[in-house]
Each structure stands twice: as structure tokens, then as C-alpha cells.
Amino acid sequence: MEERNTTAGIVRQDGKLLIAKRVEGGPVGGLWEFVGGKCRHCETPEEALVREFEEELGISVVVGKLLATHTFENNHVRYHLGAYEVKRVDSKPITLSVHTEIAWVSFSELDAYTFPPSDQAIISQLR
After folding, report:
1. Could you point out which of 10, 19, 62, 107 has its C-alpha 20 to 30 Å from the C-alpha of 127?
2. For residue 1, what pLDDT is reported?
3. What is the DSSP letter of 97?
4. What is the topology classification, in CATH, of domain 2-126?
5. Which DSSP letter does residue 101 get?
6. Do 36 and 4 form a contact (C-beta atoms < 8 A)?
């Protein structure tokens, strides 16, 4: 079975978490998620997160410690998801490319949003 590493960035600001809603289509279309994505060949999870935040939100970040992990299978691929603390290092406006909206929510508000199972597992560990 093929194995891939994937990432999720946990951005905290004023007691809130940054989440983003994916555009419609695909297996996670229309769902909320933590920004991140698949690691490219020979790319570390930290490098992938820096790239993903630039590509998906147009912002620069630094990646901190690993907060949670989850392994899952999808279409005969085993994914190893790592959720990392992420801090924004610029003040550029957020520009959405693969999301329709973002939200800053507290932990208690997360239940009001629909996440894919992999992100739900991360949320459970963060609590």
C-alpha cells in the first residue's frame, strides 16, 4: 500500500483557531478543515505547511511543534497526518485559492462546523 505524509496547520489567535471551507467538489469539497496538504516528494511536513499556507492563503508562516497525529486510509493510500502549531509572520491580507471562506472559532464552536474524519480525529486529540 502506498503511504503519504500530509499536514494540518493549527493557527491560534486571541483564543481562536483558523479554519477554512474547501470549494465544492472532490472528497472534502464543502467541508471545513485546517489549512495544510500533502507533502511533496522529499519535502518535510514543515516545508509542506509553509508552501501550503502560501499557496492556499497567500501568507507566510513559521511552523512550530507537532501537536497531534492521525493515520487513515483513502483509496488504497495510507496517509500519516501531522498537525503542527503554525504562526503567521506577515500582515498581508488573506487571499483564498482553494477555499470559499475562513473563520476564527473557539474550540467549543468547532462542533458547529463539518470537518472530514481526519480533521475530526485531530480536533479530538487537541481537546
Report:
1. 62
2. 85
3. S
4. Nucleoside Triphosphate Pyrophosphohydrolase (3.90.79)
5. E
6. no
Using CA atoms, how far residue 37 sits from 16, 20, 80, in Å, is 21, 13, 11
Report which of 127, 122, 117, 109 is spatially closest to residue 31, judged by C-alpha positions: 117
Smallest CA-to-CA distance from 22 within 118, 123, 121 is with 118
| Band of residue 74 on the pLDDT scale cut at 50, 70, 90 | confident
Question: Taking the model in full, what pTM does it have?
Answer: 0.92
Question: Would you tell me how many other CB atoms lie within 10 Å of the CB of residue 114?
Answer: 12
State mean pLDDT over 2-22: 96
pLDDT of residue 59: 97
Q: State how beta strands 61-74 and 99-105 pair.
A: unpaired
What whole-number distance in Å separates Cα of residue 79 and Cα of residue 101? Answer: 26
Distance CA 76, CA 17 (A): 31
The answer to whether the beta carbons of residues 49 and 36 sit under 8 Å apart is yes
CA distance 52 to 39: 9
pLDDT digits (tens, 9 = 90+) for 23-65: 998 777 899 999 999 999 899 999 999 999 999 999 999 999 9
